[in-house]
Amino acid sequence: MKIIIAGAKAIGSHLAKFLSRNNYDITLIDEDEERLNDLSGDYDLMTIHASPSSIKAMKDAEVKDCDLYIGVTLNEDLNINCCIIAKALGAKKTVAKINNDEFLNHEMVALFNKLGIDSLIYPEGLAAHDIINGLKMSWVRLRWDVHEGALIMLGIKLRETCEILNQPLKDLCKPETPYHIVAIKRGGETIIPRGDDVLKIYDVVYFMTTRNYIPYIRKIVGKEHYVDVKNVMIMGGGETALKASLLLPEYMNAKIIEIDEKRCEYINEVINNKNIMVINGDGRDIPLLIEEAIKNTQAFVALTGNAETNILACLTAKRMGVRKTVAMVENLDYVSMAESLDIGTIINRRAIAASHIYQMLLDSDTENTRFLMNANADVVEFTAQEGSKITKKKVYELGLPYGMTIGGLVRNGEGMLVSGGSQIQAGDTVVVYCHDINIEKIERLFK
């Protein structure tokens, strides 16, 4: 598959690194020669030093044979224009990163489709949705509704109160068990588990279950005593914070602490919500936090543009008794450090955007995909085709490649967990977890 990425900054460079591991034919176009040299020296990709809008550069990159053209420069207008030109020159699909959520209404999306832009990516909005999903369940690190909620994936850090520690998974995960453990993050290691693996304290474990068994999962991992989030404190009033505030459920109250007075005034005008208070101040100011009743706050969300500030602020909030903390960490080099410090939920807009773009790279039989940044694993939905290898034997007889496991399936709209004795049928939507394996290899099982 041939992919052209316009823009080698945050999202573009992350995508290039992320996609090169799957042996795609990648060309990266940018005006920053030094950045291109750094990337080309470490990853298997071609670079073109030119303006992304250059017709010559697009032709040199063979855009006429391009399967996907991705516009992710810092300039929204440039991304839109480049995608329009690329589609006119023959690119099969295009995706543009935008900074304006007004473009996401139905009429504008239809207009952009006519102009040649197949998809729009708004990282701030995607991050805001992830933040709110995390606040709705204070005891999980990550929640993802698969196939519109037919299946639920929960990422949970295990503590001393967990009931299922140190037991072989073959004893825990039986055909009648209402969950399936699909991945384990242990320190810096990602494990796609087998029957003899055991869960250990401080593991981050990814469970697949159905909605009605979420309370049961909460019980066995020992998190029933975690209070639900009603009061939220948000440090930083940028676009991600603003979008998250607009998505806040009615039963939650929030205080946004923003250091810029004019920005505070703008947020107040946009939000107009009696449950949200905007405070002009420095979120690192401990006396201010105490004055604003941080001890009565169940969640602290740090969304400034500085990763170090966000990490330190979350550590401070934890020491002051806040159980749920969320830190926006844009520098990927700091993600592992934040995890080791037990920060809580890590939000990285470039990784979230990359996951959504990644979905477009797979065939139309692939309905959804997500890259679990903290676990370095992919979660992908495939639809099993008539006569495909995946439908010809029971799961335990398939000889699935190492690094892959099946978490569940959706049949006629109903979510089901999968065990070794399950038989996948044509038309089933199957949720696959994989680590350190080429997804195209897995894709062939479903065709």
State the gist of this model.
By secondary structure, the chain is α/β, with parallel strands linked by helices.
Secondary-structure blueprint:
Blueprint lengths: L1 E5 L3 H11 L4 E6 L2 H10 L3 E4 L5 H6 L7 E4 L4 H13 L4 E5 L8 H10 L3 E3 L1 H14 L5 E5 L4 E7 L11 H4 L6 E8 L2 E3 L12 E6 L4 H7 L10 E5 L3 H9 L5 E6 L2 H11 L4 E5 L5 H6 L7 E4 L4 H13 L4 E5 L6 H6 L4 E3 L1 H11 L6 E7 L4 E7 L20 E8 L2 E4 L11 E6 L4 H5 L4
Parallel strand pairs: 1-2, 1-4, 2-3, 4-5, 5-6, 12-13, 12-15, 13-14, 15-16, 16-17
Antiparallel strand pairs: 7-8, 8-11, 9-10, 9-11, 18-19, 19-22, 20-21, 20-22
Question: How large, in whole angstroms, is the Cα Rg?
Answer: 23 Å
What value does the average pLDDT take? 88
Strand content: 25-35%
What's the total helix number? 15
